[in-house]
Amino acid sequence: MTEEEKGEVKKRILHELEKTRESIEDYKESTKPISPENAIGRISRMDAINNKSVVEAALRKSQEKFNKLKLVLGKVEDPDFGKCMQCGIEIPIGRILLMPQSRKCVRCAQ
Fold first, then answer.
1. What is the Rg, in whole angstroms, of the alpha carbon atoms belonging to the chain?
2. pLDDT of residue 42
3. pTM of the model
């Protein structure tokens, strides 16, 4: 991987980190407890509780992605960066730019 490609990857990772951080903040706001004194009706309350659990799952996935992105950002300068951690082949730059948190090639990731 060239230095220019590494710079592009760093830029993409920083952009993804910021976007993911914003998503985490939004999800945290959406997962606040539903106050029982709010008269929204039984069915509406059940929908709100269900939606809350869906948002909590999205929050966990976003936090996991954020942590992986931070890890990968620290490894961009490593000589092995851009190689599949399982089989060792070079990961195409398109995949790295699309999913910078992934450290495996498409074949190994399946």
1. 19
2. 64
3. 0.76
53/81 Cα distance (integer angstroms): 36
Question: With bands split at pLDDT 50, 70 and 90, how would you rate the model's confidence at 90?
Answer: very high
* Mean of pLDDT values over 56-66: 95
Q: With contact defined as beta carbons under 8 Å apart, do 5 and 95 qualify?
A: no
| Rounded CA separation 34/61 (Å) | 22
CA distance 60 to 54: 10
- Domain ranges in the chain? 3-78
Both tokens assigned to 67: 């942590």
The DSSP result for 7-50, as a single string, is HHHHHHHHHHHHHHHHHHHHHHHHTSPPPTTS---HHHHHHHHH
Number of neighbouring beta carbons within 10 Å of residue 18: 11
Confidence of residue 34 (pLDDT cuts 50, 70, 90): low
Q: How far is CA 104 from the centre of its chain?
A: 15
